[in-house]
Amino acid sequence: KNSVLSQMPEVRYLVHQHNLGRSAIRNFLASNASYNNLLFLDADGQLLNDQFISNYSAYLNAKTLISGGRIYSAAKPSQKEFILHWKYGLSFESQTASTRNLKPVAYFHSNNFLVPKSLMKEFPFDESFVKYGYEDLAWASHLQDQHWEILHIDNPVIHVGLDSNVVFLQKLDESMENLLNHLSEPWTEKISLIKYFNILRNARLLGVYQWIFNLLKRSMTQNLLGENSN
């Protein structure tokens, strides 16, 4: 049904028969773009107002990666199966630009950002990331290492595409696989989870932690999947 978009002026509607992965699809879109400024938006983002594009216009042609951010509705989902994603997003991802600029890499999400095409051409996303998780942080970290500025502004979209509790946990598992596969790369050292992992490893406590985790895993999973997940 989305093919109706192809009838709109200045719209190119492209379809792939196979899922290219979260990194490769963004590189593909950038290489097929016609103009010098690229605005990436995920389909599950809802605009807050009619000023969304004009809020970005001041940053056109800037040699900077501009992140608009994302927020979550303050209203609790009516369906209990979406509580976990909503709680996590509201607590950790719904942040103002001033907060996000304190840790520009950690708070970068690829669902809503403006970037020069030349930057994408010179520094494409790492296409070894196919599954969910950390491809955006790895890319932003690489740009920062190459002395590109990452600027967060208050121009968020509302993330309305909530995953069910089960799917959200599955995606987190996938993100852990991505993290494990890139553990030797310097950008992972910026992640709090890896910092704690290294503390446990250096203290030779990984085995103890694994034993405790195995004891608690079932009850923790039940908590996360429940309607009052903490």
Kindly report the spatial arrangement of strands forming the biggest sheet. Answer: 1-5-3-6
Q: Gap between N and C termini, in Å?
A: 38 Å
Main sheet specs: 4 strands, mixed
CA gyration radius, whole angstroms: 19 Å
Q: How many helices?
A: 9
Describe, in short, the structure shown.
The chain has 9 helices and 7 strands. With 230 residues, the chain is α/β, with parallel strands linked by helices.
Describe the structure.
- It is globular and about 60 Å long.
- With 230 residues, it is an alpha/beta fold.
- Strands 1-5-3-6 form a four-stranded mixed sheet.
- The mean pLDDT is 93.
- It is built from nine helices and seven strands, in the order H-E-E-H-E-E-H-H-E-H-H-E-E-H-H-H.
SSE blueprint:
Elements: H1 22-32, E1 37-41, E2 45-47, H2 52-57, E3 64-67, E4 70-71, H3 83-93, H4 97-100, E5 112-116, H5 117-122, H6 135-145, E6 149-152, E7 157-159, H7 165-181, H8 192-202, H9 206-225
Parallel strand pairs: 3-6, 4-7
Antiparallel strand pairs: 1-5, 2-7, 3-5
Give a quick set of tags describing it.
3-stranded mixed β-sheet, 4-stranded mixed β-sheet, globular, 7 strands, 230 residues, alpha/beta
